[in-house]
Amino acid sequence: MGVAVRNMLTREEKKGQTRAALMDAALELVGKGENFASISLREVAKNAGVVPTSFYRHFRDMEELGLNIVDELGMLLRKILRAARQQEDYVTNLTRRSLVIYTQFVLEHRSHFYFLCQCRTGGTPALRSGIRHELRYFANELASDMRQFGSVERIDREDLEQICEVIVGLVADTTIDLLDLQASHTGFQEEYVAQLQKKLRLVWLGAQSWRSDRSA
Amino acid sequence: MGVAVRNMLTREEKKGQTRAALMDAALELVGKGENFASISLREVAKNAGVVPTSFYRHFRDMEELGLNIVDELGMLLRKILRAARQQEDYVTNLTRRSLVIYTQFVLEHRSHFYFLCQCRTGGTPALRSGIRHELRYFANELASDMRQFGSVERIDREDLEQICEVIVGLVADTTIDLLDLQASHTGFQEEYVAQLQKKLRLVWLGAQSWRSDRSA
DNA sequence: CTTTTCAGTGTACAAGTGTTGACTCAAAAA
DNA sequence: TTTTTGAGTCAACACTTGTACACTGAAAAG
Asked: Fewest beta carbons within 10 Å, which of A5, A87, B39, B77?
């Protein structure tokens, strides 16, 4: 750097741009219903408006691209946490409105969450553990929030984290339903939230009568 | 039919035999870590010791083969139910030993359950809904057992079925963990059961304090 | 017996795959 | 200014993919 910027793009800006185009192209294909595992490097390159060999300037192979998508996904999840915490009544009403926020994020980033559903239990080992890692982080953050705001005195840290993993697993598990029922009827989003909330209440009830002594 | 059977195979026996060989070949590839979505017709045919074009005598395409695997999977699940019910203490001790039986079935049919994990949320719509259908059936059977043997008077039918779907989802969700930790150390199976049982206890506690009035 | 049926074979093709190496040519560095 | 760097291009490779078509030959039907 040193020369005046003009309105042209610097070299690494341009690089980052096509890099993003490649990732977006892959995600778009996933969003269209293709399975990430069966998407070819060439297909991605073509969709990004780039020659196949150019792919290698950015990723070793499709799996490495996938791992970068996982990172994006992690950032997205943290963004959801931030948004949820920003509610003024987050403390008292932890579930209901947070779920609405979650569903909004999901529907605004369909492709990312299709990817999540596909790879969480179906991807290569590396992708799987990457996603698992992000979800565990999410669950632990949730646990620390519940420790502050919820009434969970009788539950020790380890148990609470495990409970939150169950919750996160439940949410992730039902996400595919939300994605499938696309723009069919708009009222479905509320229906989905209600049904999911019901399941979460079950877990919550369980947590209420949980004692960390005499359990393991 | 009419001629003496000799020790040769009849035509449709032989047909069913290669048909099974094709399905087994696909499952074997899944068990080796390949994703079902990216397995080719030719690969399956070669692995089954059959020429590619012969595939079409049995299945229109890989998806149709997949749907037949789903059927096999359904039969397997029903076999698990039968085995679990055959325990003399099934009534009182519904969870613990049933889980052991489940894990045994999983480890004896690794490929089928890899397939399950891959396709439950990551497969094509048809495969997904097929698997979902089988799991729902399983959950409903479980619900009817619980109605008979458990203390679930305060839970109406619909709620109980939903609770069982949560349980089944939880089990399915953790199955990938069981499969990943292969023959590494044998004691892991018990560890897995313990951890899963803990999660199920959480749901069970929740069910205990569930009231179907004032909930939806 | 003769005839029909049909699972499995062999060949062929057009299209797509990952990866190679040598090439441009503009931005960045000297 | 000149030199260097490196993202993107182009052409070519060896290989795999799904599918079509004509075939064989033994089991089943007549």
From this structure: A5
Which range of residues forms the domain containing residue A29?
10-59
Window 37-66 of B: residues touching A by CB (8 A cutoff) are 37-38
Burial of B175 (0-12, 13-18, 19+ CB in 10 A): buried
Which residue do the tokens 């490097």 mark?
A41
User: Does B137 lie in the same domain as B70?
Assistant: yes
Residue A52 lies in a domain: yes
Question: Could you tell me the two tokens for A115?
Answer: 């990817």
Q: State the complex-level ipTM.
A: 0.93
Instruction: Report whether B126 contacts B69 (CB < 8 A).
Output: no
Least Cα separation, residue B193 to chain A (angstroms): 12
With beta carbons less than 8 A apart as the criterion, state whether A39 and A102 touch: no
pLDDT in tens, B178-199: 999 876 567 889 999 999 999 9
- Residue at A138: amino acid letter: F
Are the beta carbons of A156 and A212 closer than 8 angstroms?
Answer: yes
Is residue A3, in this structure, part of any structural domain at all?
no
B214 belongs to a structural domain: no
What is the C-alpha separation between B30 and A4, in angstroms, rounded?
56
